[in-house]
Amino acid sequence: MAEFDWALETLLVHGGNDVVKTEPYHATAPAIYPSTSYQVASPELLDQVMAGSIPGFSYARHGNPSVEAFVQAMIQLECAETGVACASGMSAIDMALYAVGLQPGDALLLSQDLYGASLNLASAIWQQYGVQPMVVDFANLAGVKDILERFHPRAMIFEVISNPLLKVLDAKALIKLASDYHCQVIVDNTFTTPLMAEPLTWGADLVVHSATKYLGGHGDAMGGVVLGRRRYHDRLHQYLKLRGAILGPFEAWLLHRGLKTLGVRFERQCANALEIAEALRSSGLFDQVYYPLLPDHPSYPLARQYFGVMGGAVVTLDIPGGRSAVYQFINHLRLVGSATTVGDVYTLCLYPVIASHRNQTPEERLAMGITDGTVRIAVGLESPDDVIRDIIQATKS
Ligand SMILES: Cc1ncc(COP(=O)(O)O)c(C=O)c1O
């Protein structure tokens, strides 16, 4: 694809294809490269490839054309200057934490509403190496400023929309605040995708994704990706080579293919989510229906400001009656599945108390706003009317 100021929709379809293009015939569908090594035409060339002074492939732990095609597409979509793809979203977050150069004694600032395993990664692993994780409410800008002033964290990490209560953070204000205190910013863009949020354009340093979710979009490939400014290139590639974290070529191919339909899938999933949220709210069956584009959601003004008409593809419900009512609800669903993921073509529900937030005490969950009746619905591509009917019949049963 010739260089041009292409629109996001065009980049989604064409991005990265040139990496695997062959002359004079090139397959319209990109090829998969399972090879673990590459016979380079001359030792002089291999020397340059190994030194990283020219792009190329030598050994698949360092790079692979199928992976590179996916990475190049993501670099374009996130307006990044460098990037790497790895085996999972968790691996991407770990790699980003390495890339910012955390040292023993450094503070690391984490949003309290981050994905639970991201919080555990900081406390269970990085803390062992002397890093001090500090978990705060990023909606409280004054509180964040206070920590920045007092502890000078080397980096902060947050998600723009929280899970499962869908609180929206003022990402631009947080990034500005961080830059005033020379704190590097990592944004997990999994739930927002490049269609809703562009953290690097807003000034963040690194973006990570669990590509397992919306990017792949079909629930059949795990992967992660880290994108960022050029200054992170060496550390990201060092991690990739030495920790052996590279994404597999088959997964890369599936994830790259997923990107081509991300635009239509995600837009439809967001529209379905809004329709489902409005109908479930009007049913009067639930203690709460959370969706950022419902006017009574606490983040509604920020959601409108940042996202316009796309509010994400997750709706969260508070079912009256606590755990037994939720079990009954899940057991009576006929269409909506029960699985611990989002971003699939299928609508899936998750009960945070036994899944994503099982490691928190009931008191900690309540402090976050998660009750024993909270259920997350990750909206898929079925008819929203069918999903609404199924949820209502399961609630009444
Ligand atoms: C927001 C977010 N970030 C990261 C991850 C980790 O991704 P993976 O499961 O691909 O390691 C998840 C997984 O659910 C997630 O929801």
Concise synopsis of the structure shown:
This protein is of the alpha/beta class. It has helices spanning 8-14, 43-51, 65-77, 89-99, 116-125, 141-151, 171-180, 193-196, 199-202, 233-243, 249-283, 300-307, 322-332, 362-368, 384-396, and strands at 82-86, 107-111, 132-136, 155-159, 184-188, 206-210, 224-228, 288-290, 314-318, 337-338, 348-350, 374-378.
Description:
There is one protein chain. This protein folds into 2 domains: 8-258, Type I PLP-dependent aspartate aminotransferase-like (Major domain) (Aspartate Aminotransferase, domain 2), CATH 3.40.640; 263-396, Aspartate Aminotransferase, domain 1. It is α/β, with parallel strands linked by helices and 397 residues long. It has helices at residues 8-14, 43-51, 65-77, 89-99, 116-125, 141-151, 171-180, 193-196, 199-202, 233-243, 249-283, 300-307, 322-332, 362-368, 384-396, and strands at 82-86, 107-111, 132-136, 155-159, 184-188, 206-210, 224-228, 288-290, 314-318, 337-338, 348-350, 374-378. Strand 4 (155-159), helix 7 (171-180) and strand 5 form a beta-alpha-beta unit. The termini are far apart. Residues 88-90, 115, 159, 188, 190-191, 210, 212, 222, 224 line the site of pyridoxal-5'-phosphate (PLP).
